[in-house]
Amino acid sequence: MGQLIIKYHIKYLILRQVSINLYYKIKFLMHYHPENIEPKWRQKWVDESLYKISNESVKPKYYVLDMFPYPSGAGLHVGHPLGYIASDIFARYKRLKGFNVLHPMGYDAFGLPAEQYAIQTGVHPAVSTDENIKRYREQLDNIGFSFDWSREVKTSDPSYYKWTQWIFLQLYHHYYDLSENKAKPIKELISSFEKFGSAYIRSYHSHDSDFTANEWAEMSPKQKDDTLMNYRLAYRKTGYVNWCEALGTVLANDEVKDGLSERGGHPVEKKAMMQWSLRITAYAERLLQDLDTLEWSDALKSMQKNWIGRSEGAQMFFEIVGHEEKLEIFTTRPDTIFGATYLVLAPEHDLVKKITTIEQNENVEAYLEYVSSRSEIDRMSEVKEVSGVFTGAYAKHPFTDNEIPIWLGEYVLKDYGTGAIMAVPSDDERDQLFAKKFGLDIIDVVDKSEYPGSTMHDKTGKIINSDFLNGMEVMNAIQYMFEQIEKTGIGAKKVNYKLRDANYSRQRYWGEPFPIAYNKEGVAQPLSVDKLPLTLPELENFQPASGGKSPLARADDWVGQIPDMTLETDTMPGFAGSSWYFLRYMDASNENEFASKKAIDYWQDVDLYVGGTEHAVGHLMYSRTWHKFLYDLGLVPTIEPFKKLVNQGMITAYGYYAENLKFDDGNTLIGNIKDIKSDHNIHVGSPIRLAYINEHLDSQNRVTKSKFSEYIESIGKHFNVLNDTTKYYWAKDDNGEDYFTVNIIQEKMSKSKYNVQNPDEIVTKYGADCFRMYEMFLGPIEQSKPWDTKGIDGVNRFLRKYWSLYFSEKGWEVSDEAPTAEENKILHTSIRKVTDDIERFSFNTCISAFMVCVNELKRLECNKRQILEPLTILLAPFAPFITEELWEMFGNKTSVHSADYPVFLEKYLIQDTVEYPVCVNGKKRDTVEVSAQLSQAEIQAIALSLDNVKKYVEGKDVQKVIVVPGRMINLVIKE
Predict the structure, then answer these.
(1) Three-class SS state of 786
(2) In this predicted structure, which of 16-30, 320-334, 749-763 has the lowest mean pLDDT?
(3) Are strands 310-320 and 388-396 parallel, antiparallel or unpaired?
(4) Residue 14 — very low, low, confident or very high, per pLDDT cuts 50/70/90?
(5) pLDDT at 85
């Protein structure tokens, strides 16, 4: 008997434990646990190669691309994934809509930052780059992107840059034929030179003299090489560049500020150097005209148009007194030529040394030294200050024969136009400032008195003081002058562009080597394709070499590896690999071509490109040019690489600053002017950053002395914040407590500003789905917005409420019962709204629509499969993990990301009945639900039959019954 009792007791304990386990399992399921769900699906997607895409499919193609990142050691902050999340949502959406979607990712891995890091730490850039890429990959995977990683590219991988070198060689072997308006093989040009010399050639070039076939034949190999460099699309020439000795390299204009390098703040000077360049100016007109074929924002198109800078004007030649050379200028206002009282050359102009007189030589040399420290951006941006020097030379005015002085001025740039201008101080602000500063003549040549409000920039008015042009309207005078200039032989009508050829040489190690060698005569010898890739040697010394040489110049064995030849030691710039990477994704593993014709013909071009506006006139201009060149060669089927482009805004962060206060008594303290109560003479110095002090501020953005001490102890000491409280200006509040106010500004999120937020921390705390949706919820994708996690709890609550739709206290509880009309209406309203907003890239409003939908379904306690299953698919692009888990719980064996997108049905939005408030003399007395199909007379009859209405109208005169369709019924009675 005792054994039986023990046996039943054991059974009881087992059943009890099973019940407890089941209870806790149900309780666990009822609650949303992203920390368990997300790792599971990340691994499953990898195991099943869910996002691997084929180049062969019966589905229509769609190519979604992100501007790939430079893998820095700092890793991603929350600002980086903003565009990636948006493009991922769209890629997943298009996949659900039945498209074969290419959505790849790679790394822009060559460049200056990695090399600087190598110099500082001794870590080889190849090693640090690979470590950084591994870190980026982990962070990207953590957020749940649908990238096809089998197509990953890395620009520093020899298997990739082999084809960057190959494309460079194609550019080298081609020139631009103006008669056919396309690139043509240089061998065809050489053949024409051999037969006719430079005659009959309509090409885009920089050659300034003609030659015969005999003269070509008599040229040495070096002379022929130098001549052809004036025609090649990739060419080598001596040009003035921004040289930074400390960094040991040439810098682009946007990398120089106030004469210093943006990276490191080192001095930069203008220096004449032999450089490789790309003749992108040959494509200027096509780059401009083809903008009309693109689905880009007007703002972005305007940026490109302004950068290309097309202008119609006149090319004119001024004779230089005492010299054989003529000075070429370009002007859009030939009508003002009688107001040209002097000429201005760029300080770097080739004629400066030839025409400068002995008397002016010392002054000119001093001025050239000053200008060498100025960036082009600084020279062009300073409109209120001018500088210059007289050369001592004079030119002859082509119509008056007057001698006019030739000056140098930094506001004229060598590579813009001809590097020289005719100055008309009466009709140009800078010319006027220059003339007034140096006492030069100013002759009014346009009378604008009949055009009130017009400025000197407007082409309006009548010409005066201009001989045969007097009395003409400006526009008529411009056209007449075009004719006169050509008639007199002093010039011709011409189209000019502000766009300049791209400098393509860098004196650094970490970049693509040029596949070019030089023989003993210095003639360039391109490497054959079978010698590619020309790989970088493994240098230990990355320090910049002196004298403008690359670190590669130290690698003697590498430089001299080809007998009797010397390899080029410059490397290509960072934009080389990024100019064509979108094509490599189409066929990333191809060892024999940059991409096969079959793959390129299938994917064609990028349907959607997402990235920042900072690349508007750099990367986008270069990649468009490369693509047009490859189109000319018949290697790509489209004239443009990117159909639609969306610029995501920047996620900014709050910066916390106090000011340096300098008092008249000599004291210097840190504080804020608004806290100063006395009449001290105060000067404000540079602001002092107080990194991460926000948690120690009160509601008025003030920090008390006690809170400041806590801040210093807990955080501030790690960020070099001055901890001596006597160095701060402390004001006193009404309670006698010391404080100072902190200024809060929005600024770029950057590690150097100590204001970054690691996305890993957010994902760990809230989950990737929450992070993704919150970034989209912050505001329109195109706008910049500050990072602030105050609203993230709302998104987190939404996901938990959404999860709870599928569960009850018993666990998973989804009903097969048919939905009500209201439930169907809620779902299909959401399908229409979300679909329309995705297509418009309005993801923040999509999130709002989901919140409304879930709230409404929760109110109705809806758990219908026919509602929740399509809702799961609808949400999947935004929250890929939670929807994948719920989809599996529905019993589906395939991924939710492989499902069919829910179809919107208009019929569910058509109301069968309408609920009317029924009023008597404007006061609500009842409500009634009637068929939406009833006439107004039928609705009126029903309203009059209601008991709650009858007692107010019985025995009284009903003068009027007003039925507002779908809104209300009002009975007007006489009291």
Answers:
(1) strand
(2) 16-30
(3) antiparallel
(4) low
(5) 98
Segment 836-843 long-range contacts (CB within 8 Å, at least 24 positions apart): 838/89, 838/90, 838/93, 838/877, 841/86, 841/90, 841/646, 841/781, 841/782, 842/780, 842/781, 843/86, 843/89, 843/776, 843/781, 843/878
Please, are residues 65 and 87 in contact by the beta-carbon 8 Å criterion? yes
Q: What per-residue string of b and e applies to 919-950 under the rule 16 or more CB within 10 Å gives b?
A: bbeeeebbebeeeeeeeeeebbebbeebeebe
CA-to-CA distance for 625 and 945, rounded, in angstroms? 78
Give CA–CA dist 720/413, Å, rounded.
Answer: 43
Kindly state the average pLDDT of the residues 251-272.
76
Distance of CA 312 to the CA centre of its chain: 30
* Residue 653 amino acid letter: A
What integer best gives the mean pLDDT of the chain?
91
pLDDT higher than 60, residue 22: no
Residues in contact with 188: Cβ distance below 8 Å, sequence separation at least 6, in sequence order: none
Reported confidence tier of residue 546, pLDDT bands at 50, 70, 90: confident
Establish how many alpha carbons lie within 13 A of residue 788's alpha carbon, considering only the half-sphere containing its beta carbon.
13
Q: pLDDT at residue 334 above 90? A: yes
Placement of tokens 């001018």 in the chain:
386
- Taking the mean position of all CA atoms in its chain, how far away is CA 885? 35
- CA dihedral angle for residue 882, residue 884, residue 890, residue 895, rounded to 10 degrees: 170
Percent of the chain residues topping a pLDDT of 90: 70
Q: Which residue has the tokens 């690489």?
A: 641
Secondary-structure percent of the chain, ordered helix, strand, coil, rounded to 5: 40, 20, 35
* Structure-block tokens of residue 404: 């006019």
pTM, two decimals, is: 0.86
Alpha-carbon gap, residue 176 to 205, rounded angstroms:
8
Q: Per-residue pLDDT for 245 more than 90?
A: no
Q: Give the position of tokens 């939406």.
A: 932
Residue 228 is encoded by which pair of tokens? 């052809």
